[in-house]
Amino acid sequence: MNKIKSLADLKKLKEEVQSKIKLREKGDNPDNLIQIKVSMATCGIASGAKDTMNYFIEELDHQGIDALITQTGCMGFCYAEPTIELTMPGKQPVIYGYVDKAKAQEIIDKHIKLNELVDGIIPVSYKTIDE
Amino acid sequence: MADYKMHLLVCGGTGCKAAQSELIKTNFQNQLAERGLENEIQVIHTGCFGFCEQGPIVKIQPDNTFYVSVSPDDTLEIIDEHVVKGRIVERLLYTDPNTKSQISESKNMDFYKKQVRIALRNCGFINPENIEEYIGNDGYSALGKCLDELSPEEAIKIIMDSGLRGRGGGGFPTGLKWDITRKVENEQKYVVCNADEGDPGAFMDRSILEGDPHTVIEAMAICGFCIGADKGLVYIRAEYPLAIQRLKTALKQAREFGLLGENILGSGFSFDIEIRYGAGAFVCGEETALIHSMEGKRGEPTFKPPFPSQEGYLGKPTNVNNVETFANIPPIINKGAAWFSTIGTEKSKGTKVFALAGKINNVGLIEVPMGTTLREVIYDIGGGIKNGRQFKSVQTGGPSGGCLTKDFLDTPIDYDNLLAAGSMMGSGGMIVMDEDDCMVSIAKFYLEFTLEESCGKCTPCRIGNKRLHEILEKITNGNGTPEDLTKLRMLSHVIKDTSLCGLGQTSPNPVLSTLDNFMDEYEAHVKEGKCPAGQCKALLQYVIDDEQCTGCTLCFRICPVGAISGEKRSPHYIDQALCIKCGACFEKCKFNAIKIA
Amino acid sequence: MEMINLTIDKKPLVVKKGTSILEAASSIGVHIPTLCHMHLHDMNIENKPGGCRVCVVEVTGRRNLAPACCTEVAEGMEVRSHSIRAVNARRTVLELILSDHPADCLVCAKSGNCELQDMAHHLGIREIHYQGEQSHYREDTSPAIIREMDKCILCRRCEMMCNEVQTVGVLSMINRGFHAVVSPAFEMNLDHSSCTYCGQCVAVCPTGALTEVDQTGAVIRALSDPSKTVIVQTAPAVRAALGEEFGLPAGTLVTGKMAAALRRLGFDYVFDTDFAADLTIMEEGTELLGRLNKFLAGDKDVKLPILTSCCPAWVKFFEHHFPGLKDIPSTARSPQQMFGSIAKTYFADKMQVKREDLVVVSIMPCVAKKYESSRDEFAVDGNPDVDYALTTRELAQIINLANIDFKFLPDEEFDQPMGESTGASVIFGTTGGVIEAAVRTAYELQTGKTLERLDFEELRGMEGLRKATIDFDGLPINIGIAHGLGNARKLLEEIKTGASEFHAIEIMSCPGGCIGGGGQPYHHGDVEILRKRQKAIYSEDQSKTIRKSHENPYIKKLYQEFLGEPLSEKAHHLLHTEYFDRS
Questions:
Q1: Given a contact as 3+ CB pairs under 8 Å, which chains touch C?
Q2: CB atoms A21 and B62 under 8 Å
Q3: How far apart are alpha carbons C262 and C265 in whole angstroms?
Q4: pLDDT tens, B259-281?
Q5: What is the Cα–Cα distance from A129 to A131, expressed in whole angstroms?
Q6: For residue B452, is pLDDT > 70?
Q7: What's the first-to-final CA gap in chain C, in angstroms?
Q8: Is the pLDDT assigned to residue B567 strictly greater than 80?
Q9: Do C10 and C94 belong to one domain?
């Protein structure tokens, strides 16, 4: 390790290493963040949920959008895997089915960035999957 | 650098380590590796989460799932269910004792709801053995700010304005102490961190050093900058091996990163820290005794003045602060005095860490804003009294604090209120007692501790406490007289009035506060020959109720001294002259025929 | 100098900043009682651990009571030394001390001289309200000092003397709380430790916890044994202090009364250690000149400075702490031992008394002399040169036992031949005296000229470390003087590093020299007493007609008849010794 020689060095290092623990901070304070829960049960994983999740993580990070991406169990929409639940801060959660990479890109471009709903929403009668 | 998608935070505090958290961590690592997930999911040991009652704790981020009482056998299920499939392992969640519902997120748990974590901010959050995690969470930015933007005077002013007071017990304004030390002219000055945590049951300093050692290092460097010292010493008890090891690792890393040593951050300011080991004498928490111990002398206090700020270690001006005090410094510098002073009460700003112990459901380490009431701490955070018993008393401030009754439950906790109530803040021990505790025995118990830990230098503490203890012994043995109660009070006042250091000056507090608050119990002992809580063996009698006794002979058979006699199927009898009051018959009787008289 | 205004017991006063409440109070006639506190003014020796808490006073605005001994005055301070709160606390604290103290005052060695007893009387303690367990320790007996720690009140004076003043480091507080006690490390016996037996712990102990080994019984038995010839020698410092034991003012010279008392006690011959002191000067002075002249002749191996060797505690000190320097001190025995050696040879022959029938008793201001007389090298076939060494206090004890009214005794002379002495030998009793005596003789022997001025004021005083250069007729001789072993240590460290500028150094273990010895009447912290004894010593010197050791006619005779000349083989055998590495 090279020595930190100035305050600027320290700040630079901080930015570099911040992401190491950012995940934990996000986890502690999720309410002001865009939250994406990826259904990662057996059926989801089989349909490529892992790729979808990785795509969200990488793409959002790439575009510098702060979001909390977690996995969750089976949402019960096995016919429409991979499914994700997207919660914009202060908004009701929305569930999308058949989310492959292309769909993921569309959701990022439209729903997340422009707040426009995208096709493929699965209408649900409950509020969130936690309840 | 590889960014992990998920973090498994395993508590690496001393308590959880004793409960195999090391094995839990290794299991996780092995099981992740078997599944090829080691580069996606990070397992780290953090400092203490505070919820020791339910340890070992495993927290999963970013899911914010909080698993309690995890055993090494549970790791496979957590990996396969939670990590791989995203399904929460519900049986490992915390169950709210009141609603019986399971809670997955710690912030929804009553234990954490009312907590505000400043000193403990990084405990259970970062890996204490990784300086980068500390830096990533604003670490060393306060030191950077001081060196780059602030003069020592300005930095001290922030500390002064924040209203921070010493967390080691005395409650002396920290900024003022720094200012006094700064103004004493001397080429050599020292910063000393008092990590000689001695209160039985208190472990906040240990937890901070185990969970966030860099905060102490950073704060000591800031203090060095402010008072004009280039040398720091951490006086830590040798019984804290994990804290010592983490601190050593942290010191090494800080030096490697150039955050200790010569010309820190190119500012021209140099500072380094050495560790000194204490042998665990309680009195060495007193700052003059601590300094003598560091100098290789007998650890006993000397009269102040001169204060260490004037003449301390090796006769040089020395600023001594406790670990928790230091842990508050970086956030204050970063966020400002105004932020800090909005937390707390008028004269006690910020938060205080308490170690909850005794007959309370959630034993552990908590940090709450000053001004939180005892009721909130005991019932909301602490989860109330164990086994549904009634609250009787809470003892704050370590062995020389006072025992407060339920009348004080709604008292907001701060330095001055606790003093006014006849107790003290101390270093933050909080021990809860229920109706089964005999307050005379409790007073005796605490006095035994101070008796043991007195250095013996001054008469009142050396002999006075011995005599107090002998009187209490006499009372709990059933030989007390009403005059003994007067003697207890008079002698206690003289000891408080004449002792040399804080240990002696506060040692009679448990006696005085129980005399004030539980006089009826003392009187029952000396006037009626009874111990209302049934704790004082000499004062209780086991008798057999003829009506209930079936003559089953079980008691006859288990009595170790042959004090019980009687015919089969007819009531038995206990010979009081032979009975040693071991209570075996009482516990074993199936018919509740044995009574305590 | 910044001045502070305050009131004590409603009396306003102005004192210097930095003054303690105790000193301030004393300046207006308010005598706040103290027990652990002790201040030897001007010697830089102060014990104020603030431990006993007897001196607590009430200070307006202060939460608790303040110990007067270590609380500095502050502007506007209002002190109440006898408020009911302060008096009650003070009495309670004393009761607590008494509750952990054996109540055997009537038979205690310190009875009548005990500061704790005085305090109980002063505060009118009539009942001890808080009784309980008392601490018990094993009694520790050594050749010179007895430790009876049941009687220790933890004033820590002995510890301060042993560590800070003497830098011997044997006594310190060990254990905690009620079990705390002052002890050698690991509770070892004193005679296994590096204790020098200087006796300064005994000199300052307020109670009977530290006392000297009592040899009065043995001396009384010897005196009543008709088959024994019992002779006595008295050290120079005894005559300047013994009177105090009989109510005479400090500084009263009682040389004549002492001789009379000893004769009445039944000693067959009453001699003077001063005679042997003159003999010491002859041997030590000659040794000094020998080494000096070798050095001046260019011998680089010669050991300089030469150090005096009269003080047994000092000898034991360097044997423990500076064994590497053991060939530097003079090999001359101390006057006590020279006396014993000559008495049991020269004098015994003269009187035709067998060695084993001659009992030599010495009266010393010192407890270490008891140890010195017991050293193996000072005995012949197990028969010691000096059989018993009593302290000044023990002498007073047997004088009382013999129903002698000391104050009314006539002045009597010492017996001859070993009772004749010079002024030079008398001043052996004070710091600076041995070296001054040596200078008087060495000057004349070296230069062959007669000294015109005998009073070397530059060598006198109470400073712990002093130095002077004496002109030996053109040859400057650098003299160092240290009293107190801590000061001696500084000079030894210099010698060790080769930085010492001295040719000769006098060392005495006790502050003030033998006048402040551990066997003298208790001074109870009053340094004025030591000054008065010192003054008495110098006045005795002044009153002598012969003031140079080499002019003592009986010494000359001793050499003529018996020893030959200084440093002769016989002198070596009888008057010199060797030192041992005890580290």
A1: B
A2: no
A3: 5
A4: 999 999 999 999 999 999 988 88
A5: 6
A6: yes
A7: 48
A8: yes
A9: yes
One domain for residues C145 and C106: no
Q: Give CA separation, C4 vs A20, B311, C19, in Å.
A: 62, 22, 9
Write out pLDDT tens, residues C100-159.
999 999 999 999 999 999 999 999 999 999 999 999 999 999 999 999 999 999 999 999
B-chain residues within 8 Å CB-CB of C132?
A: 466-467, 470
CA distances from B397 to B200, B348, B384, B441, C55 (A): 10, 15, 20, 18, 30
Task: Identify whether residues B426 and B505 lie together within a single domain.
Answer: no
Q: Give the SS3 label for residue C259.
A: helix
Burial (Cβ within 10 Å: 0-12, 13-18, ≥19) of residue C245: buried
Q: Which helix (H) or strand (E) holds A96?
A: strand A94-96
Phi, psi dihedral angles at B7 (to 5 degrees): -115, 130
Q: Is C134 on the interface with B (CB under 8 A)?
A: no
- Residue (of B226, B211, B224, B290) closest to B260 by Cα position: B224
Q: What's the pLDDT at B539? A: 86
Does the pLDDT at position A128 exceed 80?
no
Chain B CB contacts of C100 below 8 Å: 463, 466
Q: Do C176 and B452 touch (CB under 8 A)?
A: yes
pLDDT for A127 equals 46
Number of domains in chain B: 5
List the end-to-end C-alpha distance of chain A, in Å, as a whole number. Answer: 48
Last residue of a domain, one of C69, C87, C122: C122
Would you state the pLDDT for residue C101?
97
C144, C131 Cβ separation under 8 angstroms: no
Is the model's pLDDT at B3 over the cut of 70?
no
How far apart (Å, rounded) are the C-alpha atoms in residues C50 and C155?
9
ipTM over the 0.90 cut-off: yes
Q: What residues of chain B have any CB closer than 8 angstroms to a CB in chain A?
A: 1, 3-7, 9, 61-64, 84-88, 107, 125-126, 132-133, 135-141, 144-145, 147-148, 256-259, 265-266
Please indicate whether, in this complex, the C-beta atoms of C51 and B459 are within 8 angstroms of each other. Answer: yes
**Tokens coding C194:** 């590096």
Q: Which domains does chain A have, with CATH numbers?
A: 30-114 (3.40.30.10)
The beta strand positions in C484-563, using DSSP E, are 504-508
Q: What is the tens place of the pLDDT at every residue in B367-418? A: 999 999 999 999 999 999 998 899 999 999 888 888 999 999 999 999 999 9
Q: What are the angstrom distances between the C-alpha of B349 and each of B163, B343, B345, C258?
A: 6, 6, 6, 76
Closest listed residue to residue C397, CA positions, set C102, C104, C112: C112
**Token pair belonging to C547:** 């003031």
Size of interface A-B (CB pairs under 8 A): 112
pTM of the predicted model as reported, rounded to 2 decimal places:
0.88
DSSP annotation of B360: B
Task: Report in angstroms the alpha-carbon separations of C363 from C20, C271, C399.
Answer: 40, 10, 12
Q: Could you tell me which chains touch chain B, where touching means 3 or more CB pairs under 8 A?
A: A, C
Q: How far is B459 from chain C (nearest CA, A)?
A: 5
Contact yes or no for C179 and B456 at CB 8 A: yes
Above 60 in pLDDT, residue A129?
Answer: no
Active site residues of C: 284, 287, 310, 330, 369, 372, 377, 514
What was the pLDDT predicted at B1? 35
Q: How far apart are CA B493 and CA B490, in angstroms?
A: 5
Domain limit, last residue, from C178, C212, C246: C212
Mean pLDDT on C309-329: 95
CB-count exposure of residue B552 (10 Å: 0-12, 13-18, 19+): middle
Question: Same domain, yes or no, for B263 and B144?
Answer: yes
Same-domain pairing of C91 and C171: no
Cα C225 off chain centre by: 31
